[in-house]
Amino acid sequence: MKALLTSGVLALAFTLFLTPLFIKLFHKLEWGQFIRDDGPKSHHSKRGTATMGGLVVIAGVLFGYFGGLLSDGVKPTASGLLVLFMMGGLGIVGFIDDFLKTHKQQSLGLGGWAKVLGQVIVAGTFAVLALQFPSKTGLTPASTNISLIRDIQFLDFMKLGTIVGIGLFILWICVITVATSNGVNVTDGLDGLATGASIVAIGSYVIIGFWQAQQLCSAAGIDPDNVYKCYEVRDPFDLAIVATAIAGALVGFLWWNTSPAQIFLGDTGSLALGGALAALAVLSRTELLVIVIGGLFVIEAGSVIVQRAYFKVTHGKRIFLMSPIHHHFELKGWAEVTVVVRFWIVAGLLVAAGVGSFYLEWLSQ
């Protein structure tokens, strides 16, 4: 418990007190935000605002996570390190994208397919590693089953054979990762929007990880024959510690990222956060539940997909004034702060629904 609390406090303190130093550094390096010309006119005043704030968040998470473990004399687990690998790997992809934008002074860094390729490489490597490092009981960080609130026993890729099963498992992890990371990425368009939504989404895994740790099938007093009353997760408490460090780092960062933002997450941060969310879902066996927990990101990404599809089918017509959908409400006259707070409320309600479903499933057994 000490590691859990300490990790969040250290991560929060890091980003809260050190972000101003990073802002000065990023301005000196001329890492300023480039604003697209076709966006809302009110956003043009944000040109030059420090970006790549994801570097601050990632540094804060590392400081909080390892500091929390050190304070309690606990060693990191394979599951915790895998979340950090996914977060850091996608952070590198985002950093390359951000660096190209600031260097070229244009809104496009990496091409769309180049960015997806980077995400797939990181996710594929994560998938392979997640099937390694078995515990003393033979439990690996990830399983080859598709999961909702726990593994769905009849949806096991390995039933199709080892080679096909592993291939489909890697593909499945890539789909989840690309979807979540791009979902957070498109949400990161208003001051504090993606940061606040990520706090509640990733923060939910503090609750889920802690609860799973108390109800492990291998724990004393738990009936291992009742697989619907306990959880087969390798390192749930360490996942809760990682989630606490990420949420804490984001809370401290939000102080400087809220309107008017002095620093943006950039693709460095948004892709990293989406990757962390995907990793937490996979390793906690809640892959499909993340659709609800990260529901705001689903809505945001969905609005882009629907807008583009409708535009092509109707040869130029639009459903929304602009996508992602938060820009639609801006162009309808909502103040930026109003859009952000209302979207935070939506994100919070969806997270509550997801966590509530998680607990009710256990209660119903």
From TrEMBL:
Its EC number is 2.7.8.13. GO terms for biological process: cell division; cell wall organization; peptidoglycan biosynthetic process; regulation of cell shape. Its main location: membrane. The chain crosses the membrane at residues 6-27, 48-66, 78-100, 112-133, 160-180, 192-211, 237-256, 263-283, 289-311, 339-360. GO terms for molecular function: metal ion binding; phospho-N-acetylmuramoyl-pentapeptide-transferase activity; UDP-N-acetylmuramoyl-L-alanyl-D-glutamyl-meso-2,6-diaminopimelyl-D-alanyl-D-alanine:undecaprenyl-phosphate transferase activity. The keyword Signal does not apply. It catalyses: UDP-N-acetyl-alpha-D-muramoyl-L-alanyl-gamma-D-glutamyl-meso-2,6-diaminopimeloyl-D-alanyl-D-alanine + di-trans,octa-cis-undecaprenyl phosphate = di-trans,octa-cis-undecaprenyl diphospho-N-acetyl-alpha-D-muramoyl-L-alanyl-D-glutamyl-meso-2,6-diaminopimeloyl-D-alanyl-D-alanine + UMP. Mg(2+) binds at residues 185, 267. One of its GO terms (cellular component) is plasma membrane. The keyword tRNA-binding does not apply. Its cofactor is Mg(2+). It is found in: Cell membrane; Membrane. Belongs to the glycosyltransferase 4 family. MraY subfamily. This is Phospho-N-acetylmuramoyl-pentapeptide-transferase. It comes from Orlajensenia leifsoniae.
